[in-house]
Amino acid sequence: GENVEQHPSTLSVQEGDSAVIKCTYSDSASNYFPWYKQELGKRPQLIIDIRSNVGEKKDQRIAVTLNKTAKHFSLHITETQPEDSAVYFCAARDNFGNEKLTFGTGTRLTIIP
Amino acid sequence: DAGITQSPRHKVTETGTPVTLRCHQTENHRYMYWYRQDPGHGLRLIHYSYGVKDTDKGEVSDGYSVSRSKTEDFLLTLESATSSQTSVYFCAISGGIGTEAFFGQGTRLTVV
Questions:
Q1: Which residues contact B69 (CB under 8 A, 6 or more apart)?
Q2: Do A103 and B44 touch (CB under 8 A)?
Q3: For the segment A72-99, what is each residue's pLDDT rounded down to a tens digit?
Q4: A94: distance to nearest CA of chain B, Å?
Q5: CB spacing of B97 vs A46 below 8 angstroms
Q6: At A83, is the secondary structure helix, strand, or coil?
Q7: Which chain B residues are closer than 8 Å to A89 by Cβ?
């Protein structure tokens, strides 16, 4: 089955700097890669996603890149702000029709004012 | 927010008792998932469903069973609860291939 590895597990950056979180996946059949943000005590919520036919996607300060050959994808947050502090999860979803969705172990991002 | 509701939101139960968690959706989405969240382990897939009566195991399915007799409800049952099943349980739903998965509010289960 699919295995998603996520690094680092914790990340602290100065406010205004950039943050990068990386994930690798094992199943070459996976074709959809979402990123979720979870604030303390709340449910995970989608912040950006990318499909396997796209190499990069941006949404304001957030971007995701995908390298299908190497089977890794990354989340980039620029000009970080205190409200970016949260736990971030990457995930991979297969395309066999049953849409199994496998998550990484999460990255706790702390923005230092 | 997507129409997804988990019940109960909190539960304390004794070791060895059966427990059923309910996920109810009003979106008519085909795909439903149950995850558990524990510190250091992220979101681990327990079971998922890709249609009525179509379910499959995730990576941590031992000790859990599921049922989906109608589109809107996905039930997670702990046949005989153990302390290792103390966790926060999240249900998620998704409408189609490559579409966003929405999470419920979560259920905090404590097994004593």
A1: B52, B53
A2: yes
A3: 999 999 999 999 999 999 999 987 677 8
A4: 9
A5: no
A6: helix
A7: 42-43
